[in-house]
Amino acid sequence: MKHPQPTTETPTGYESVRTFLTAVALLAISSFGGLLIIDGFSRLQPLVGLGDSFALTFLVGGGLATLWFAAVGVAYLRFRPVTIHYDLRWPTLRDGGWILGGLAGIIVVSLLAEVVVNLFGSGSATNISTAAAIENPVFIYSVFLVGNLLFIAPIEEFLFRGVIQGRLRESFGTITAITITSVGFGLTHIPSYWFGGSDLLSVGVWGAVVSIAATGFILGYLYERTNSLLTVSIIHGLVNTVGIGLALLAVL
């Protein structure tokens, strides 16, 4: 299933600039909108008798923020069609190879980023899920584990790789589109560290952002190679599952 094909005319300089600004706008609207949703829910909680549980803020506010990502992508597609390769089907053995290779590549990149961060200093790099899990780690990580696979990863891949990367590809080509999208993917995770109470100027936070951007680059490359949003959503979900699973094991 694909959205209607966009025009195939060679883009002018003006159109390329407009495409870039559109991508920046989508990244900003999704990121700041998600931040406002989580912050707004945290302020609403005590007013409606839900207390000040940060775990609840994460689960409900974070869930609504993820839905906001989906709403931004769907709204834009109604305004400006973008070709998206959903490829909704049962994965094949070939898909399994891409999934395992992508997972291994992202894990290696993440480990290298951690080594570099440790060489140049650490600093706080606590994200919203880690901060929320302090109240009830087993429950929070268990819910997050399921929500990540079925909800968070597919929606983020739809917006970033499907909509934003797909739009950029029309004007800039594959590599530039992947690069811009992956940088934006990393930057849009900064609010997560802000909610987690991290020092946003620390080496730890920016090391994490670079690692996430590198992960986004690998996902973007694999999306172009496989033409399958399903495949990269599975890889994305499994990468997060590894991290969540390790955090869960650490508290058991």
From TrEMBL:
Domain CAAX prenyl protease 2/Lysostaphin resistance protein A-like span(s) in chain numbering: 143-242
Single GO biological process annotation from the record: CAAX-box protein maturation
Single GO term (MF): endopeptidase activity
Coiled coil: none
Keyword hit for Transmembrane helix: yes
Keywords: Membrane, Transmembrane, Transmembrane helix
Pfam families for this protein: Rce1-like
Record InterPro entries: CAAX_protease, Rce1/LyrA-like_dom
Transmembrane portions of the chain: 20-42, 54-77, 98-119, 139-160, 172-194, 200-222, 229-251
Name listed for the protein in its UniProt record: CAAX prenyl protease 2/Lysostaphin resistance protein A-like domain-containing protein
Source species of the chain: Halopenitus malekzadehii
